[in-house]
Structure prediction request, 335 residues.
Amino acid sequence: MGSGWISRTALAAACAALAGCGEGGRGDKAAAATGLRVAAVFATPIEEPWDGCIHKALLRAREELGVGYEWAESVANPDFERVVREFAGRGFSVVMGDAFGSEEAVRRAARDFPHVAFCFGSGLGPQPPNFSVFDNWIHEPAYLSGMIAGKLTKSNIVGAVGGYSVPEVNRLVNAFFDGARAVNPAVKGKIIFINSWFDPPKAKEAVFAAAALGADVFFGERYGVIEACREKNLFAFSNMQPQWQLAPDNVVTGPVWEMWPTVREVISRVKAGTYAAEDYREWSMMRKGGASLAPYHDFEKKLPPKVLRMVAEKQREILDGRFTVPVNEKVPVSN
Prediction:
């Protein structure tokens, strides 16, 4: 087993035996040369931003790192373990995805395939020797987004629509509200959870409900918020992916999750034979390039220069380690 995970020699031998076992496509041709294939299992459609960020990074790995890549999307919890095991059993070197709804099942599968690198989104810790975890630690740009929202709101009421009140969502909403209140102490927050990871119509209705209470700026933690803001002509902040194109007159910016640093690091360690179970948290933060603010586009000219300078300075403080955005995973409360 070695000090890391699996020896480079053993990995190369296994990869050579598996080369050409894919189902075709550019990724599998590349895998015949690199000897490494990656699979992903997603609980939602890849259009959903959380899983979409992982998928985007793995597509990039196929193009730039020459790995084979296959995925399964919209996998229901009862089927999740079976699909994960099928990929692991077919000789994929890495299996990734979102484990939150099937945590124990995926960890159970990882124990039965100790020579496969499992790396899943999780709120829990790593499981030796081969189960690593990651999460979207993008609370820093969520805080910066909140600062802008606090300056944009006319009603002093900012809204947020979240999926479930789990720690991973709570910390983003709390950071957004904290940023808004840091620059505008009069701000009140309205939070609505839709109890779904992907239900755009329900998210849209939540915006209408919060707008009726006076909210005029929204953090769209879930997909569907931006469409509602476009209809109501409200300011919106996207989440995880740049979504300016959905409503150019409404989307100001938003926290971006860049999974590429995490994916690149995992694949690099597997190739080097040094992969081990660990928490890849730092690779999803601003200092590692895993988080950022989406481009302002037209809002570069629409926002007051002093607001842009304020946000730029706070971002420099974060990157320099002079300011730490608090991690608050308590359930956010409307006030």
Summary: Residues 1-27 have pLDDT under 50 and may be disordered.
